[in-house]
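re: ur question from earlier - yeah i can do the single chain one, its not a big deal. heres the input i used so u can compare w yours
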Amino acid sequence: MKVLMLGWEFPPHITGGLGTACYGMAKGLKAKGADVIFVTPKAYGDEDRTVADIVNASDVEVDIYEKEYKDVINSMTYIEVDSSLIPYAGPEEYEKYYEKINKDTVLHDKPVFSRKYQFAGGYGKTLYEEVARYAIVVAKIATMYDFDIIHAHDWLTYSAGIAAKRVSGKPLVCHIHATEFDRSGDNINTIVYDLERSGMMNADRVIAVSNLTANTVINKYGIDPSKVFTVHNAITTSPTDVSKFKKNFDTKFVTFLGRLTYQKGPEYFIDAAKLILQRDKDVHFVMAGTGDMMPGLVKYVAKLGISDNFHFTGFLRGEQVDRMFAMSNVFVMPSVSEPFGLVPLEAMSLNVPVVISKQSGVSEVLEHALKVDFWDVNAMADCIYALLHYDTLSEMYKKYGKIEIDNMKWENAAEKIINVYNSILK
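and the output i got, formated as tokens:
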């Protein structure tokens, strides 16, 4: 089986969990005998090509005057918006991305309908333009490769998936890692919503990363439940020797790692920290990441008078994350709406007990995690305090959590995805 997979990012060049999930999925599909052709807007040359044939959309020339591509263009609503929308606004989102935009403006001086287009490979001010251009290029790519099925990840690639389906006649699977309701609450971006709904309506099957997300797809987008399937994410683990990050002090650390945005619920973490410090003044709290809420959160911590015990690290990656987890006694994910949530799995894989919100997809599959409603900061504080002060409880969650994570393999998720493919191809 050959899969034409469409994704906006691929490791090591990622800004959030989407690229990590795409990599794990491609690796799992490869292990199950499926060949993946992965089309990314911009390839850098250092991607792991043992798991997928990486196609760089920036290298593909398209003659827009050819009939098949004109049909694709005519079927699209082309919107050029000076947008600061960053849908997977990774921790380096604002200042770092805009700095890149300013340095690399040459990337955007060609119109979307030019013969060749150099994608920025990110989530910047020409994002809608790039989404439209990506669809045109993928239509071309769909005529160049032999494949059995199209697999498109999230709204940025749905127009491309529809175009590839129209050109090739092959079935389309849309994979939902997050919806606009997760990112924005009820104050949704209607353009993104329309792109999401169009993709799902045109798809032969829709894969959601959790039952929580599947219910959103059905109830808020009006998608036929019979074509919606849940396949929970997994984790790609690699042996990490955390002993090299020796903790030479007794201070207890509680960690938050994620975008500092509405969706992730960072203010509830701060409220819980305040409650814990009323009972134990020696605990320290680490908030790793950046985002649109960061300035306000810094002020809020100061207002509560807990700045001496609260640390903002900014964006962490790679070994920095491993070092942070090695120093952590508890990890907390208080998300308001989390389609899945990979970070708790990463923490558990490194023997850190976790507290997660019930409003997360990962809560559907984790047994050895303490779960609370995101808004119930008293319960959240109680769970954190218990893991910090009752060693037997903490050790139990570490031990069985690690066993649980070791069994959450992408190969198992890939098998379920292949079953979804086969339900169309039969």
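The domain at 242-406 is CATH 3.40.50.2000 (Rossmann fold). not sure if urs matches, ping me
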